[in-house]
Amino acid sequence: MDIFLQLRSKVPMYEQIVTQVKQHIMTGRLKDGDPIPSMRTLAKTLQVSVITVQKAYEELQRAGLIESLAGRGTFIRVADANNIKQEYLNAIAEHMGKITELAKEGGISIDEVIDLFKKQRPSSG
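Below the sequence we write its predicted structure tokens.
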């Protein structure tokens, strides 16, 4: 499992871990039942405290994305990646409400907003 932390980011390290695990699930790099490193192993690999990884794993567990089995390890547990996609769609919709408001205030057409989006969005792949 490849996790890369941006040490100078304003996003807390545990959130970066959570986001990247979700991305790995969405892209199919991590599938239901796949093992993931123990908290200690990942902390050592990323050179962060075990508490940072523990916080990330707790959030992933609350979201129903991982499961820790005593004596066996920690595994991806996601029956349906659509739940993660829906979470992202909800966040996008929330931001779009703000964008729509700004566009109306600034007299910006929907076509101009779409053009701007097309220039900004990452390439899909």
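The CA atoms of residues 26 and 85 lie 7 Å apart.
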